[in-house]
Structures are given as structure tokens and as C-alpha cells.
Prior knowledge:
This protein has helices spanning 42-58, 76-86, 138-149, 168-175; strands spanning 13-16, 27-30, 67-71, 90-93, 103-107, 115-119, 126-134, 153-162, 180-185. It is α/β, with parallel strands linked by helices. Helix 1 (42-58) crosses helix 2 (76-86). It is globular. Mean pLDDT is 88; it is low at 1-8.
Amino acid sequence: MTTTPHHLGYHARRVRRLNVAAQSRDVRIVHPLDGIDQQVEPTALLRAGSALWRSWRRHPAFATPELLLGLDAGGILPTIAVALASGVPYRLAWKLDLDLPSKLRFTEPHAQRSDVFAYGDLTGKKVLLIDDETTTGNTLANLVSELRGAAVEVVGAVCLIEDTTGDARSLLEDSLEVPLCTLTRI
């Protein structure tokens, strides 16, 4: 299934993953920024970042973040794109356990390497979470719990794609009171 919002021409589709471990998702969402189907022109990155930032600014729960926090792998490019569009600085959470102070550990339950680490003292910061996609919302929910435990205010979560086969929106918005803003729902 492909969904294309009119304002961006942004599309995404589900592709079956081969040879995945039992705990991993057997579906991957393929979208224009991941460079899988085709090469990515730099202007596409800028357009996506501008569209994400514009969508977040128009969201009814909009709050200005002091920091963007992107998730390892798929969230790196959207985070950089939003940082360029907004002028808000960013950090990235990595699947690397490094000997650095001030780190928060959270989990990405469906991944082969499930431990993810956000580095730096984020205490008291207003943070906007960014990823390329969300399905169940469990990874973002785990991160929200860790951040709130460290006195970080999560103002929202922004994703390129919401895979509606999961229940991410309900988990994030209803259970955790974290506004979710996405460009595409499939």
C-alpha cells in the first residue's frame, strides 16, 4: 500500500524483510529518504525536513523544542533534515554502548540489537523526538519513560511515516500524552 500526501508528494510502502530473527519485524517501510529504491537528491532531504517541521509547527500541541533527539539508523536523516529546517540543535541516540557520562539506556524491542543509548545531560530540556517511522510506538515509549525519569520534557514525537498496523498513536498520545506528528500514514 502506498500513501502520498498532496503537500509533499511523500510516499512509503511496506516491503517484506527476508531472513529476520523471530523477535524482529518481518516488514520494512521503504521511503524516499532511506535510499533503498532510488538515489536521494539533497533537495529531497531539505523538502522532507521542511515538511516535518511545518507539520509540527501546525500541530495543535506544538511546543518549541530546545533539542531534537533522533533515533539510530532510520531517524538520523529526518533529524538532520528537521534541524536544518528549524535551526534547532540535535543529538542522536545510538546502538553503541560507549564509556561516556550522562547516558540513558532504552530498548528497541523488535530489533536484533535492542539496546539504544542517548548521551549527554538532557535534564530540564524540552526535547522533540524524531524517527523515520513508528508502528507500535514501543521504542518511542521506552525512550519517553527514560527521558521523563531524567527530568526531560518530551514535547512530542515527529515521524515521516506512521505504520497504522500497530497502535503507536494510541500508546503515545493517549497513554503517555506525547503528541505524535507524521507526514504519512500507511
